[in-house]
Amino acid sequence: MTAYMFSASRTSFTGNSVRRSLCRRAVELLATSLLLFLSTGRVDANTTVRVYSLMYHENVPDNFVEAVNAGFNASLASRQWTVAHNMRVKVTAPRTTSTPPIVALENAIKENEGSFFLLLGPMGDFTTNPSFVPTLKSQNLVAFAPLTASTASRGWNPNLYFLRVSATAELLALIRYAIGQLRTLRLGFMYLQDVSFGEEEYSLAVRIMYRMGHEFCCVFTVKSSLTGQGLDDGFRSAWIAFAKRNPQAVILFSPPSKDTEKFVRMIVSDARTNKAFLLAPSILQLVMERVWREALNVVSAPFVSGQVVLAGINPLATDTQYSAIKRFQENVRSYLKSHPGVTVFNSSDDFDHDDIDGQLMVYGWLVGEVLSQALNTSEWLSSREAFMESLYDQRRYVVDDLVFGDYGNECVGLAAAHGAICRCNQGGKAVHVRVLTDGYRLLDADSGMMMFDSSQCYSNRVDVRAPFSAVLFKVTDDPVAMNAAEEMDRGSSLLENIRVGEEGRLFINAITLPSSDIVSGLKSELSKRITDAVLGVVSGSVLDVPGVAFIDPVVLEPRLNKYRRHVIHLSPTLGQQFYVVVSYLADKVREGFHAVIRSSEGDDIGDLLSTTLVTFGMALQSTTIMSGNTSMRDRLPDRGTVYVMGLNTGDAELIADHLERHGSLLVVVPFFDMILRHKEFVSAFEGKASADRLLFATNLPHWADRNTRSEFVQQFHKAEKNSSRWTPLTLLGYAASRFAKAVISPMRVVNADAVVEAVFAQYMVAVDDM
Description:
It is built from 22 helices and 25 strands. A seven-stranded mixed sheet has the order 8-7-9-10-11-14-15, with helices on both faces. InterPro entries: Adenylyl/Guanylyl_Cyclase_3/4, GRESAG4.1/3_peripasmic_1, GRESAG4.1/3_peripasmic_2, Peripla_BP_I.
């Protein structure tokens, strides 16, 4: 811990949809897009690469099918439909969406017997036809970028080349969001039996929850009506058992069906569940807007923004923070200019309506971008076998700032140990969790993005650990406390919650309320939501609330430290500051030592300061105890050293003026008083030499030192590029989050008691060089 002189420098301290059927566009697509080309020997530059599009499904609305295919076409059109060595790409689609994928596949095989061609898609669960994948294998064909949520097709199979994340990755992201961001104490799960989507995910979800120290409060499951069982058979009794547990949130993992729609209607209509959050995978985006709207209308219930949470597989069409999306918009606008009416968008669109169509169009465009890279060497196109081998030659595709891969084939020897990706046909590594907001628009949720390490191919093998859920109070009736909370919140948020690793485990939620309600508000949070810890500004009385850990609490009034096992101090206590300051001044000052204290614990604080002074052979000549509203004017001595504690608005300026008028006076303030009123001190002492006679003690390296040798501050500056935000409170918030991250790193189960035990079990917690 260091005693600092205060420097006067500021730097020291659903729109109208145009519907066109795939069948009506078949002629146009044949004229401008699809696939096939000869495959033996050297490939001629004039060869046509034929691509057969299976991106359709008889149960998927035409506008969604059109969106995917239009995005794909826009990507290829931006390249004038050419790939390696000016080879042309021709895309072909069946004349009707009722054509089964296996039939379209067999027709393509007949048309291109013995020669090279590509398959785009398919869309939907193709595993329902048992001969589809075996046919791919027998013909050495690869289904490129299947758009399916089914887990039956996942796992290593070189004939299936996935770009989108798996349903299990979406499940992990939804569980993480429900536990970490929503802080759900009672989480339910819904799935249907005897379908290819839901049962396997439920088993995985149970294991994940158990490993994190949680369990589902209730599970709703019935046999799918798609298997022939009546929709009402067992549904009512299953619902009664489910709803009586009052779930706060429900993960809905079932395919679009009448069963799913009925379940959603029950959620909305039952008073025990109608306030619950509903979390669903991307496959349900196709129907959720309509189903939710209809369910609300039936019971005349109001729409609640954020109640429906949906996983997404790629960025929104409006998310121009990505360079890839900026280029997507340019390509699509250009394509739609010459192909009007093929989607709900037009050539001058901002893509700010029909979010689902937009997402699907982005997916199609990304598929086109990746496929163009996969076709960029003519030797790879000499045969079906050569092309398949090239796809798994440790491939990674970078589309501007989006990445797909790595892909790898069978490995030999120690290749895997040396970093090779083996037996991997899964490309997507990011899940975007979104909320349904006013106007039924989709917006990215706070802390909703989850990224997976590219070295981990299959998401069901990821070691998921419990999130750390903390709260930070923003006090509405105290401007100083509010400012401090906002700065600390900004600092803590510098740790991006995006990876499945340690960074992605920290969730810090701000709660806004008046100061008189902090204690009751915290108790309410503990009874309703997962709350592992409290960070930031607190009142002294709230520290007595049990069942939660306090990590480096910043109190608004000077208080002495009392041993509370669940209160973890990172900043120096008042007693520690006394010791450091007095030891620093012991051989430097010869005149009297005084104290001016504004605190409900003033007498005890004065006694401790006096005792500390005696330890170093000094004495406290005078102590002034003040009430909260008493002015400090005329209470400061003219010479010697004065420890001033418990500052109010205006006191920083008063101290600065007093030091200017009395050159033999030294003023010391507590660390929290300094940082809570840092802006006031900077303003009051700017350009004044007397700043050298204002001292405070801290254990932090200087937050605004551009030439710092502190690795910790270097990392802080790297995370916060805006130097105007390099404040002590922002650094303090950053430090608390880094500390929490370090503590929970080895922990699989996280709760308040476990966090406290982990802290006391460690001799020290190291963060960078601190």
